[in-house]
Design goal:
single chain, 188 residues, mainly beta, six-stranded mixed β-sheet, six-stranded antiparallel beta barrel
Length: 188
């Protein structure tokens, strides 16, 4: 039997079932990506609920768009009662199904876990989250100060701040924000 980590290894979560849609068992999918073309090609998906630690594979019978959401009909989900059991499940697809990104483009999952360094190669922390704002993306960089204390830093991903992003090496190099206080240098 495969371990859960092995099942999720080459897959990426593209959305989460937020609610049922009809009495016939359709589900509303809240997308995690703006690369919506991935949804038009869905045929088989891995469903995983992180809270319940349960998963299963399913065949996608039909997909249609509804404003910001997608409506999915899955094989074996014939009524609203069985659809309700899937609320909270995330939909995982093979990474190979995701459209390729350009040099200056990235998926949020590619940035999560990246080490962030300033121009002097000082480690600022690790990317924990990526947020979309109206004008640009923002990374939440977290660094452990002690066992119980963490320092957080929000960095807008704009040209003035980003020196380089190495998606494969999981390293982001930035110009240190003026508002960042470096406790390490104050001790000298």
């Amino acid at each position: 039997m495969q371990r859960l980590d092995d099942l999720l290894k080459d897959r990426i979560s593209v959305g989460k079932f937020s609610n049922t849609h009809t009495l016939s068992g359709e589900l509303k999918l809240l997308p995690y990506t703006n690369a919506t073309e991935v949804f038009s090609d869905l045929d088989e998906v891995l469903l995983f609920n992180p809270e319940k630690k349960s998963f299963f594979f399913s065949k996608v019978l039909k997909v249609r768009r509804s404003n910001r959401l997608f409506i999915l009909k899955l094989a074996g989900v014939e009524d609203v009662v069985s659809a309700e059991k899937l609320i909270g499940f995330e939909v995982f697809v093979d990474r190979s199904k995701m459209p390729h990104t350009g040099a200056d483009e990235y998926y949020f999952y590619e940035l999560i876990g990246c080490s962030v360094f300033d121009e002097e190669d000082f480690l600022l922390g690790t990317v924990e989250e990526v947020f979309q704002t109206g004008s640009n993306d923002v990374i939440l960089v977290q660094k452990s100060i002690s066992r119980f204390e963490k320092e957080e830093l929000l960095i807008p991903l704009i040209k003035q701040n980003v020196i380089s992003i190495d998606k494969l090496g999981k390293v982001i190099k930035i110009t240190k924000p003026q508002y960042y206080e470096d406790d390490q240098k104050d001790e000298d």
